[in-house]
Amino acid sequence: MEPKRLKNFINGQWVESKTHRWLEVRNPATDEVIALCPETTPDEIDRTVRLAQEAFWSWRNTPPPRRAKFLFDFHEKLQKHQDEIAGLIVNENGKTLADARGEITRAMEYVEHACAGPELLKGSHAEDVGTGVDTMYIREPLGVFVFLPPFNFPAMIALYFVWGLAAGDTAIVKSSRLCPMTVTRIVEIAEECGFPKGVLNLLHGSGSGVGEALVTHPGTVGVSFVGSSEVGERVYKTAIHHNKRAQCQGGAKNHVLIAEDAIIDEIMQNVVDSCFGHVGERCFAVSNVLAVEKVYGKVKEKFLDLSKKLVLGYGMEKGVTLGPVVSKEALNEMLVEVDQGIKDGAKLLLDGRNPRVDKYPKGYFIGPTVFEAEPEMRIFQLEVFGPVRCLKKVKDLAEGVQIINQSPYGHTANIYTENGGWAREFARLVDVGQVGINIGTPAPIAYFPVGGRKISMFGDIRGRANEAIDFYTDKKVIISRWHSSFQGVAKTLDDGFAMKYGKK
Amino acid sequence: MEPKRLKNFINGQWVESKTHRWLEVRNPATDEVIALCPETTPDEIDRTVRLAQEAFWSWRNTPPPRRAKFLFDFHEKLQKHQDEIAGLIVNENGKTLADARGEITRAMEYVEHACAGPELLKGSHAEDVGTGVDTMYIREPLGVFVFLPPFNFPAMIALYFVWGLAAGDTAIVKSSRLCPMTVTRIVEIAEECGFPKGVLNLLHGSGSGVGEALVTHPGTVGVSFVGSSEVGERVYKTAIHHNKRAQCQGGAKNHVLIAEDAIIDEIMQNVVDSCFGHVGERCFAVSNVLAVEKVYGKVKEKFLDLSKKLVLGYGMEKGVTLGPVVSKEALNEMLVEVDQGIKDGAKLLLDGRNPRVDKYPKGYFIGPTVFEAEPEMRIFQLEVFGPVRCLKKVKDLAEGVQIINQSPYGHTANIYTENGGWAREFARLVDVGQVGINIGTPAPIAYFPVGGRKISMFGDIRGRANEAIDFYTDKKVIISRWHSSFQGVAKTLDDGFAMKYGKK
Amino acid sequence: MEPKRLKNFINGQWVESKTHRWLEVRNPATDEVIALCPETTPDEIDRTVRLAQEAFWSWRNTPPPRRAKFLFDFHEKLQKHQDEIAGLIVNENGKTLADARGEITRAMEYVEHACAGPELLKGSHAEDVGTGVDTMYIREPLGVFVFLPPFNFPAMIALYFVWGLAAGDTAIVKSSRLCPMTVTRIVEIAEECGFPKGVLNLLHGSGSGVGEALVTHPGTVGVSFVGSSEVGERVYKTAIHHNKRAQCQGGAKNHVLIAEDAIIDEIMQNVVDSCFGHVGERCFAVSNVLAVEKVYGKVKEKFLDLSKKLVLGYGMEKGVTLGPVVSKEALNEMLVEVDQGIKDGAKLLLDGRNPRVDKYPKGYFIGPTVFEAEPEMRIFQLEVFGPVRCLKKVKDLAEGVQIINQSPYGHTANIYTENGGWAREFARLVDVGQVGINIGTPAPIAYFPVGGRKISMFGDIRGRANEAIDFYTDKKVIISRWHSSFQGVAKTLDDGFAMKYGKK
Amino acid sequence: MEPKRLKNFINGQWVESKTHRWLEVRNPATDEVIALCPETTPDEIDRTVRLAQEAFWSWRNTPPPRRAKFLFDFHEKLQKHQDEIAGLIVNENGKTLADARGEITRAMEYVEHACAGPELLKGSHAEDVGTGVDTMYIREPLGVFVFLPPFNFPAMIALYFVWGLAAGDTAIVKSSRLCPMTVTRIVEIAEECGFPKGVLNLLHGSGSGVGEALVTHPGTVGVSFVGSSEVGERVYKTAIHHNKRAQCQGGAKNHVLIAEDAIIDEIMQNVVDSCFGHVGERCFAVSNVLAVEKVYGKVKEKFLDLSKKLVLGYGMEKGVTLGPVVSKEALNEMLVEVDQGIKDGAKLLLDGRNPRVDKYPKGYFIGPTVFEAEPEMRIFQLEVFGPVRCLKKVKDLAEGVQIINQSPYGHTANIYTENGGWAREFARLVDVGQVGINIGTPAPIAYFPVGGRKISMFGDIRGRANEAIDFYTDKKVIISRWHSSFQGVAKTLDDGFAMKYGKK
Predict the structure, then answer these.
(1) Which terminus of chain C, N or C, has fewer Cβ atoms within 10 Å?
(2) Domain boundaries, chain A
């Protein structure tokens, strides 16, 4: 079967790109080309931006409750197509069906939160800041926002745009070139909801090409990016250079720290899931597992046991618990890092390289790969976006925190303990954006903002939730006073003013 | 056709009451009995309360986002049945189909706002109010709430329960005995959403019987009532006597004040609609129209002209713009008030009594009835829940405000002017809960709270919106401190603590 | 020395009452009469209310930042007189100087929070709830509020009025008849700040006389009461009957529950302080100490040891750690309860009756008195407002919670544990307004609201903090729309509207 | 008299710089050197940053209410020294004493708002986002912030640091090199309040030297800058390049638009004050006065009349209403712009060049200078930081808005009208950060955020108010779940769990 050529969605219409450059989208379990994704041309980009600009003023003037109604409708229709979308995710991303469904559950909550737009957009008002003078602010949308979602959550992160639309901005989503099919389907569903034309647009293509063109186009006002730290930093600084708003979420090297009172039998499955869920390709994935001396032995044993139970395969098949990584390039980079780890003296406890996956010999598979490593090693420090993890024994909780805070990343840190005092102290000390207590992947639900520190995030307004509204709007302060008064037109004010008004 | 016997919905099941007393529900346009509504028995009431109590703990422990998902589903299903519900409203309440649809549009927004439950339920947290001491509050639901909606908005006000459910309380709705069919259908739709049994219950019967039994039952924790001031006060004080929470919204006698700069040609249709929409049976209806000397003549002329254009009839028929009042009793009371007005010397400008409505000779019709009256007259002061209205010339804006503030009611007051200063001054001076500026029925959308002053409301927490969440929950403050610390288990803390933790 | 006759502060002036009834204020350590407090006459009360009403409109129209400046000034001046006020507290209330100082520290935070009035009074605004329609609410003060503080925190609770003043209401404080001197001094200090006359008023007298007259006077709009449950309920229902707002904080019987992992050596001093601080006369005092079997023996031993170390005496003297109770009547009631406890079979572990306090033989002293008692006993169930406490062994945490929730009171409950999970579960399960985790007296700081459940509070809006602002104001919703537009006066709008406005 | 050598305030001590470069501070009315300000050396800068870093961890761990107490104390002490500070402002900045006092009044409100720190720092908490899982965020301070205030409000803008301190950050203020004396005195006053050493630091020197060194130093985390657009953009991009937070408020070219219904007699003094107050050296100053045809003639006449009444002179002298501009360089630049205006064909209506100010012949004076100019002229477009203003007739309000939105700046825009509809429409249409309605200088009070658009602001979080707290903190999300439960240690749970717990 001929792979489908994906179309762009511009100003309410599906348009095939006139580009000569078509990027292959492959099923990472089979290496088959399942779609072709256009490298959208500069002309097409420019046209899209201009049409999104034209759509802005009218969308900005659509009352927020009416905008919310589109989102309620979108929510309903997405709900109906959940399974279909999950299947697309599996096929282009590689994760298991269970993970894909988990992604969608979370994604639905984004839409649910954005449905509260009219509530979130409320401004603040103060009467009589001085006699007769009132002050208030309203939250104004800004224009055309660019959304650059990554390949690893092709549905969830792509849906960042719902807050932009709730806020009254118009949106151009550029799909991840590895996983553009999911968001294409999502935009098709949005189309059914009848959003006014130009409000939501979808373009395909590469980050360095189409993405950069959007960020630097004078007609766009800001960008929400999620991806690697390296690219995130570049996008952020480019955007700032062009006087745009930007929030760029980068990579991570997350740690868990297991205290001596942790209930090892109960927690280890959660730790392992945190390491290998979504094929380890998520910014909330745990990379390094630290445990204090007293329990390290047991932690290590359990960790390896449970890791070995993971079943590699095509994510749509039953029983499979670990899919392939997203691309051959990604797999090769990972293998280089594993080699480097070995070279640097890290102890390879579990070697997942070159696994045998009979039915899918061409898949980009790597099994769980576990090192015992030291903080100064590259394998311990740098993000590996796949199922390659490190263990490390620490003397005490203090050493654990020290190691965590020496990481160049600052996305999450997690402690396993039943002790309320240790948990509180840990949460205060670690220099990260999200803290997990007995939870390895402390991803905030849609109702809370997300953002890392250090090279895990560039930008000062966090993503999602109420902070998304902060990002997609600007506060406009209005200060007023009037000269007209009842007294100016009064005929009955012959005595005490207040009394006259019935205020006694 | 035999009128339908309405069932109660108790603990997830539709149950026919064992009562011997069945109340007739009539179509006010035809006087036909269209349903029979049981006076639910004390035993049945008691059983319902107990089952709602049993359902509470589990519903309270259902995470708010999961509770919200039920409401999203409910929203979707209600949306589909809008027309059907509108038809039920017309048939049992009498208002026109357009008004019924308007009611539902507003009602949907209640559900939409309640869908934001997880956002609205967020508590507040302060770290380190003293060294090592944290304080926060959570919003806890309280138990079984009673909802006593009125006949005039049988869909909209009945839906107050959505905030209670969002908050984690369980609900018993007692339908209005005049209009119980609409809410019955709404609860059927809710049933399809699979709310856990006992979470939402519906009982039928009289206010003095079933309503009071619910309010005084030791198993209920509070009541939201909307109805007349007289009954509202009684319900409120009864509830308080039994140590329950209560918010009781009562009646109104709303005024508009037309300033000399008002654009008469543009505003008068709005004024007339405010007076006669929903057959004048709404707490936001305008009763008294005040205008300053300079424009009074024109206002009066236009008002009478437009009033005369209203077409009486059965609300389902095309072209009808004024339906019957809800019951024969209501009609008779109104006629008594009109007589009294005449006796008191008010000038009857338009007499709507005994109108001819050919196709519906048995309907409870009264046409627009307009007096020119003085503030001290009963017809000017007391609420008439139907299309009987007063006009009054005032010398200036100050006199207008004075008259407004002398009313025993304090629901709304409205000014028509283009002048920003007059509008602001008016808003500050009038002693009411809602102020309209060029809007005769300033009903807050679901995102803002509703409540009157003086005898228009009993209770200190307003209805709907975030305030509904305040009402249906109690804040529980939690103050914590821990004795365990990293230092207590430290092995590596040989020098500077902060440094050790990587905090430099 | 002749005891001072306290004056009322009415409309900016210190006025001696014309009453013939003067109530004696005694130093509970010495039984000396230290002041005479008038039973203010009905005429004086009426005059005060009327003057406070007259002061309202102007104070309501004073911009909130300007009102805040008075409070900043008040804060500064109170700060300077802290020691003096502390001395007054010791002399009329009996608590130790250290406790009195602690009270003032907390009291200062009330003023500090109220200084944020302009922030707390901000309303909410939504632009375009429908096309061209804006909605907002402002928080309006209501009129004259009555403050009925208790004897046990004569400075702190008396200062509830700061939130009322911040909100724009005027205040009448009725002093506790046992401890009227402290608040008199506080009002003198307020006087120096130049609050406009009539804004803050002070009356002396009994609760049943002056208090009730204020609550039922048609000119007052609401009441904040703190005292016993019995009186609180009465005041609440009286206020409601008269259509006033009311929040009445009542009594308490607070429990701590000590888990098996609690660090007994560290926590017991805190437990004992919670029991006997402020002579046990506080609604946050712990009355019943529950401990699980495994640690009960050690808890009991430590508790008795530390209790015995308390030193009775006059609170101004160094080394004294337990003052007298507030009055001879209070002491006698307590002794009756102790007798009853013995009769009911409670085991008297420590008998504080008839203690020897050499220098103050006339003082109303009772030493720490400790029972081992059972939940069904009166001494375990009912509030004893003084240093009489119970211990009780429980099988497990679940039994502890069960006992706590069977109490008729619901003010606080406290757990001592290092376990985060137990703490969370405890906090959710206990049916109280405040939860302490390793803190026996979980009194929220001024920045958080305070309120109990069951008979510990009557009213639905909690005290202090942002909730105080909710209580002392009403939201007024303003909905506006305008007919004038630029197009109505346009000469340049010959093409695309948005373009013309430079919005591209 | 030898001019005073200003010292730096580093880590709690006043230290004289070892620099060899001393910058002259002159009184602009007299040209006298009144102080010498050091160009602080790189070593001193580095040392200051390191000490501020060291002070951070302890200040971050000081409970917010305790931090607030320092600010309350600071507020009190500043209040006492108001006149003294006002005098310093006049002497180094040139503005009149009345303006200087006005500045301080506003400045005090900054401190007042920051005193609400404990309120503003509250985080958000959600219980049970999933079963047993809680999520919350806390607001964490970030480290050492740099404050770069401008010369034009040497007290007010310098006090931005109060929000940083309230938030728990430590601060390094670099004084404006033209006006360093005021902030030096302010820091002396802060010193008296006993802020812990290192928490607040003051360095002197140039922006390009000391300012840039602070912004690029690896030990600082962010910068708040107020100044020109050109420098603001440079500072912003430098800060971003170094991965710091930044908010840089730039210049402005503010417009007023006078509608035909404006009450010209009442408003023109306000318009003129908006143009020439603070010598026209403020980002809120009005530069261009637009009026619709019908009233333009009268506006122009009145404007010139009132402008001519301004009295030039030394700001400390009575009767003086317009001081000198801040420096000879500034004056010269202004004169160049005036020449250019004339060259470009703008009509000079009032020529303030080379005014005669007898007593102060060396002062940097320029009288009110008024053009009639066109939007495409440089004098109409670019910011002139002094009393040089333009008038312009417009056909209608639409043309006025069009002109406003074509400006490269977006700080404020102001309309004079009594019409509520025009005011609303204007506020929505203008692309600026602050809108004034009948107020020429719509500077938000401290309780509202400030920020412009386009080249008037670089950064996405506005300054002051709650937004300042957003800027000086990062949200850290904490997600927790526990494995321990009461059931794990239960002995009494033999039947229904909820019942056992007394929850029925």
Answers:
(1) N
(2) 4-250+456-478, 254-448
